Amino acid sequence: MTPTHDRSSGSPPSLPRYQALRICEAARQHVVVVQADALTKIAAFIATLPLEPDLSTLLVQGDTSATARGASFFPTYDALERHLLATLDRSAIGLRLYVCGDEAFIWRIRRLACEAGMLPEEISAELVAAPRAVYCVHCSASHVYDALPEVECIGCGINLGVRQHFSERVGAYLGVCADPDRPYLEDRA
């Protein structure tokens, strides 16, 4: 995914930028993957999709009590992932993938789609919430956190300063030890 860059002009170039989803008229098949809480935000976009089920697929992760025309709902990310991989495996050239959700969700889906053979240019994304993945450079763990300047790594316990650098390869912001003289939030004797 090469998201359109809409962040402030002074922001580092590695930060991902997003825009509202728009249908790709040249696409032969459309797959939309969305978190349930983002359904209302992209309702107008969903209404522009072709009605034929073999041309449009809507996959929703989360609240299965939500409703959307022709949607398949998945209570867990793992169930969504299995279904998305099967959908991508059956698809032909000309597929366009649209993703909407929080930043951690977007990049997890993007990584999965690229591993399945999609090109970044075939993936569009719209951001709706702040949770994001942070990659700890000390233990190589990635975890989802609120958009805070410092977080505690769940993997190694180090207090991480979240850099304004996003790695598309790992789909996360880089986190480094915030204070080398006091790497842990609590004293460990």
UniProtKB/TrEMBL annotation:
Residues 134-176 form the Dimethylamine monooxygenase subunit DmmA-like C-terminal domain. Keywords: 2Fe-2S, Flavoprotein, Iron, Iron-sulfur, Metal-binding, Oxidoreductase. Residues 14-123 form the Dimethylamine monooxygenase subunit DmmA-like N-terminal domain. InterPro entries: DmmA-like_C (IPR048037), DmmA-like_N (IPR054582), FNR_nucleotide-bd (IPR039261). It comes from the Bacteria. NCBIfam families: mono_DmmA_fam. This is Uncharacterized protein. It comes from Paraburkholderia haematera.
